[in-house]
Description:
Keywords: Membrane, Signal, Transmembrane, Transmembrane helix. Residues 53-116 are annotated as: Disordered. Residues 114-232 form the DUF5067 domain. This is DUF5067 domain-containing protein. The protein is 45% helix and 24% strand. The N and C termini lie far apart (176 Å). The chain is α+β, with helices and mostly antiparallel strands. Strand 1 (122-124) and strand 2 (127-129) form a beta hairpin. The longest helix is centred in the N-terminal third of the chain and has 60 residues, at 28-87. The protein has a 5-stranded antiparallel sheet.
Amino acid sequence: MNRRHQKNNSNLTRRALRNRKKPFYKKKGFITIISLLVICLIGGGVYLFNKDNSNATPKVENKASSKKTDIKLKKVTPKKKTADKSKKQDPQTVKDETKTDEKKDEAKNAGSDDKSIKNAGTYNALSYTSDWFTFKLSNDVKLIKDANGDAALMINYNYTNKTQSPQNPSQIQSKYMILKQDDQQLSATQATGDYAGIVNSSNNDQVQPGKSFDGALLVKVNSTDDDVIMSFLNIQTNQPIQTTQPFKLS
């Protein structure tokens, strides 16, 4: 058998003989197989790595989309507040309607509306009259001292209520009758002593519809020498009528 082997080796070239004698791990076929295995392993690793990255990407996108949804919800809230503010602006109309109702109530209490007023206010011979009331001034006009000891002018009158509701004479008098001295409007004051009863009654009592009342007004004067001028207002326009009543103090 050695002879056959030697015979076969004699037919090989020196290079082929040298290659045959190499260890298996140095032979070209083995190296090729190993290289292919390494390439396969590397390719498989790259594939698995890319697959893991592709699976992780949707999770990032889902987080981003949830954040966008939260921002949209925050933008909706201010719109609701704006709508509430716009609703809160409506009471301005109510105030205007209230003023209109007050005018209607005043006309109702007076027993007449503005269109049906025939006498809106006239003054003649110490008598101030209108569709709503009549004031008959007395000749009993006095300079007295008020509750503070200051000089005051007291004017007695007889008041008749022509409306359909109870009225306070002092309130009607202060609304439609103005007293001035040296172009300064005089203010009401409190009485004392014998005059307190009639003045306080005029300030507090109510006169029923169709009834009359004897009362008195009392105003503080700035001087005991200068004249006091009484003027009267038109109940429809609240403007002074032409006729006035002077009171001479000296």
